[in-house]
Amino acid sequence: MDVELRKSRNGVLKFLLKDVTPAFANSIRRTILQGVPTMAIDEVEVEKNDSVMSDEILAHRLGQTPLVTPEGYLLPSECDCLEGRCPNCSVDLSLQVEGPSVIRGEDLDPSDPEASPVEGNSPIVRLGEGQKLEFNAIARLGFGEDHANWQPAIVSYKYMSVIDIDQDARDDWGECVESCPEDILAIKNDEMVVTDIEKCTMCEACLEACPDAIDVGEDSSQFIFRVESTGTMPPERLVSRAIEILKGKCEEFTEQMERF
Ligand SMILES: [Zn+2]
């Protein structure tokens, strides 16, 4: 197995994973999406809501507001309080405002400043003149497999493309080169070459333009991963946590097998 970093910028991590099976690559993808605990608003106690938005829709919007996941919190199921309602396993985010106003993420007052909304500027609800909104939202750790509120990222991968070129099939490569929307085909020393195979989207436009000379396939042992975090934690940490979780499950499995 080999991992090569391609890009890490603005919450997006791109890397190449080589010499693994599709099942292994997918287990990493699914663990990031579903198995890494993150902080999200799970419950909203509405005291007063004069806005045009119903309590249910307001709670839904709050749940979908990504929060930064601080270190050190317990899952409600692991906490001694048993209710998910103590400072070890929950964060309160309260609000008390009278309009006119546009309520944004930054208006929520978290009991732990480290669990603030990722995007302070994102609007949640608009209040008209004299309208009041009062609530206490409770954020807890949870898993993407239970609700999308806790899904920490968008994770995708594609197989590495393989473009076979029969250099003897043609003398004129013009239409083949021009057919590629990603502009990754070029002519070098009278031969057609691929300049950046990782940019290939498998659209097969080159295959349609030059079926006599080109064959497009994929390498199912190499994967180009793209992890775009909601901002709840850096994408590098998401991947590391997912690997730790997978490793922990494998170790647990081994321990149980050894008891037989
Ligand atoms: Zn607790």
- Global Rg: 25 Å
CATH-level-4 superfamily name of the largest domain: DNA-directed RNA polymerase, insert domain
CATH class type of the largest domain: Mainly Beta
Work out the count of structural domains.
Answer: 2
N-to-C series of helices and strands: EEHEHEEEEEEHEEHEH
CATH third-tier fold name of the largest domain = RNA Polymerase Alpha Subunit, Chain A, domain 2
Mean pLDDT: 95
Small molecules (ligands, ions, cofactors) in the structure: zinc ion
Shape: flat
End-to-end separation in angstroms reads 31 Å
* Residue share in helix: 10-25%
Largest sheet: 4 strands, antiparallel
Q: How do the strands of the widest beta sheet line up side by side?
A: 1-2-12-9
Low-confidence stretches: none
How many DSSP E strands? Answer: 12
What would you say the CATH architecture of the largest domain is?
Beta Complex
Number of helical segments? Answer: 5
Helix and strand arrangement:
Layout: E1 2-9, E2 12-18, H1 22-35, E3 38-49, H2 55-63, E4 90-98, E5 101-104, E6 109-110, E7 123-127, E8 132-142, E9 153-165, H3 174-179, E10 185-188, E11 191-194, H4 205-209, E12 214-229, H5 235-258
The structure holds zinc ion (ZN).
EC number: 2.7.7.6
Organism: candidate division MSBL1 archaeon SCGC-AAA382C18
Subunit structure: Part of the RNA polymerase complex.
Q: Could you characterize what this model shows?
A:
22% of the residues lie in helices and 37% in strands. It has 260 residues and is an alpha+beta fold. The strands form four sheets. The chain has a four-stranded antiparallel β-sheet. Strand 1 and strand 2 form a beta hairpin. It binds zinc ion. Zinc ion (ZN) binds at residues 79, 81, 84, 86, 88-89.
